[in-house]
Design a protein that fits this description.
Number of helices: 16
Distance between the termini: 55 Å
Bound molecules: zinc ion
Helix content: 55-70%
Shape: globular
Mean pLDDT: 85
Strand order of the largest sheet: 1-2-4-3
Number of strands: 4
Low-confidence stretches: 240-259
Amino acid sequence: MALSGDLWTELPAERRIFCSVLLFSWAVYLWEAFLAHRQRRVYRTTTHVPQELGQIMDSETFEKSRLYQLDKSTFSFWSGLYSEVEGTMILLCGGIPFLWKLSGQISGRAGFGPEYEIVQSLVFLLLATLFSAVTGLPWSLYNTFVIEEKHGFNQQVLVTIYADYIAPLFDKFIPLPEGELKQQIETMAKSIDFPLTKVYVVEGSKRSSHSNAYFYGFFKNKRIVLFDTLLEDYSALNKEPAEGEDGENEETKSKTKNKKQGCKNEEVLAVLGHELGHWKLGHTIKNIIISQMNSFLCFFLFAVLIGQKELFAAFGFYDTQPTLIGLMIIFQFIFSPYNEVLSFCLTVLSRRFEFQADAFAKELGKAKDLYSALIKLNKDNLGFPVSDWIFSMWHYSHPPLLERLQALKDAKQE
Ligand SMILES: [Zn+2]
């Protein structure tokens, strides 16, 4: 042990940096592989729908989703192994300095000498992107045309991008009409001193139900936004084209009751109670402060580290210290332990916040309504609902449905 310790300290600083980076990267890889292995065991052995979800998930859907996740997990085992080995080979064979030199030759041919570092950097970025596209292509083709074809799942990336980023730009915000729901919302806001000024509904929202309600605005001027998919009386799914008139009477309402999607008023209030809990407990502010502090710290450390020649030497840059390479080395390799720790802490924190917001809704007396609302809202995008606890703790910044239901159930019984 003493001998290996001596060997380690006798190594030049750049060798030690290089070895640490490589070892850490493998440590993270092995840890994640271990978690994925545990999660795969869950996919393999959980063959029945959990009791809590029996009403909203049939065993056929469950089995379909299970087999899909199993195949996906096996696939990502191999693609993950491949990319870890590839990354290691690139580092060991000096791929980064080689690509940098090549970029220099190309920009030199085009008439830009070494004094044009920015041109060389752009060529470098272009080549690196090209390289990763080419080496990644077979994997993504296999994923799309073999795995997703086989299971009839189609990720439809473009559709998702549209639903998540483009469609919201055209969202139509209309004020929530006067009525029972609006009054109840105002009463609840007042009871917890939430400075509510307006309530809006997003009409015809096509989003994949990532979010059902949120609030925005500064200081004493806050608005609440509800998505119409959340509201029973608003959801486009509940509107029948023949009876599109406003004068819908009680009779037709009760006829279509069974088909209705969305939440009852009490459930909407419970969901809002959760969202307002985030506000009341200061979660929003805490998140902003943390991210500001993090950026400050990163730039401070970057400024300190960028002058260290050993860092460049560790990756094969002995006589030049290009800024782009410095950014890459520091943010991608040197910060990676920090990033791993930070992202784990943020995940833990975010889950705590979610549970606290649920508990806040519970304190408002809404445990039962939140329970049924969560089940309704997750009906369509449940995926595979069971997960290994360490896997879930490491990866999910939002607690899985079953864990939330469990916490609410404990609360209900108290
Ligand atoms: Zn939340």
